[in-house]
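Thread amino acids onto this structure.
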């Protein structure tokens, strides 16, 4: 009896392995997601060219579901940079949409071209647009969450805690099913301090600070930050949670995400099994188990 040489035999095993890998039942298919890009969330007359260019959002929709919850997501970038089109942002949106939670990724005006409170006003307008229109795309307007990473977390808190911004759009914070700030600043944002000509490290908590607006009537809140976050960021988030509880707010959950830094605590929401992703999913869909 003849035997095959060792190298060809090994090659046969490789061919068989990749053939099995390519069989339909062996592939993990991504859940279907549809995307609608660059939807204007401000309409009508009187908007500046910068607003017309910047005040747009992308919708990431679960293609095979109806009456799904939606997360309005605000990107980071210190209020001076960032975009909904960044690959890390789109990856997060696709991950949530693939898990059954639609995402509206929002661009907003940036400093110094537009100064405080322009970004907050834009975030509120985007939320109001989604509230009005998500049912047209299959979503449940009663399950509308607002969240963001870093500067987006700051904007999330300001819209959810300072009722003036939603009121300007015919809503109040009770329209928000839950707030999900990720590593957000809870003092007056340092870029706003710089707009005022103050030192970046000057500690202020005035009306531009989420801490200034804590209330027992705030929407339910999941506060996430990283084990290795920016200087003082962990303490700011824990202080916000303590202030909310002191005010009588009963819907506050705060969680440190181990093994992450300021960037990865937001970006890794795009990864299967990420602790932060699982926490957010459980907050939005409490009846569902943690994702593997």
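Threaded sequence (292 positions):
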């Amino acid at each position: 009896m003849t035997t095959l040489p060792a190298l060809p035999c090994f090659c046969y095993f490789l061919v068989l392995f990749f053939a099995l890998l390519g069989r339909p039942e062996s592939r993990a298919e991504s859940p279907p997601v549809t995307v609608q890009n660059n939807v204007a969330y401000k309409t009508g007359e009187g908007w500046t060219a910068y607003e017309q260019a910047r005040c747009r959002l992308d919708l990431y929709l679960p293609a095979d579901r109806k009456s799904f919850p939606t997360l309005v997501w605000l990107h980071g970038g210190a209020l001076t940079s960032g975009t909904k089109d960044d690959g890390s942002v789109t990856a997060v949106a696709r991950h949530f949409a693939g898990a059954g939670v639609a995402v509206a990724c929002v661009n907003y005006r940036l400093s110094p071209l537009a100064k405080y409170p322009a970004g907050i006003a834009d975030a509120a307008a985007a939320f109001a647009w989604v509230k009005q229109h998500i049912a047209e795309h299959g979503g449940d307007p009663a399950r509308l969450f607002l969240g963001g990473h870093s500067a987006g977390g700051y904007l999330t808190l300001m819209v959810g805690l300072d009722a003036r911004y939603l009121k300007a759009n015919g809503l109040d914070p009770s329209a928000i099913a839950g707030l999900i700030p990720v590593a957000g600043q809870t003092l007056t944002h340092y870029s706003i301090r710089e707009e005022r000509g103050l030192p970046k490290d000057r500690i202020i908590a005035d009306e531009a600070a989420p801490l200034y607006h804590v209330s027992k009537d705030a929407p339910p809140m999941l506060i996430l930050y990283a084990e290795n976050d920016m200087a003082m960021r962990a303490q700011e988030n824990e202080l916000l949670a303590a202030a909310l509880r002191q005010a009588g707010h009963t819907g506050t959950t705060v969680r440190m995400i181990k093994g992450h830094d300021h960037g990865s605590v937001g970006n890794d929401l795009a990864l299967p099994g990420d602790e932060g992703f699982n926490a957010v999913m459980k907050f939005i869909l409490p009846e569902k188990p943690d994702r593997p």
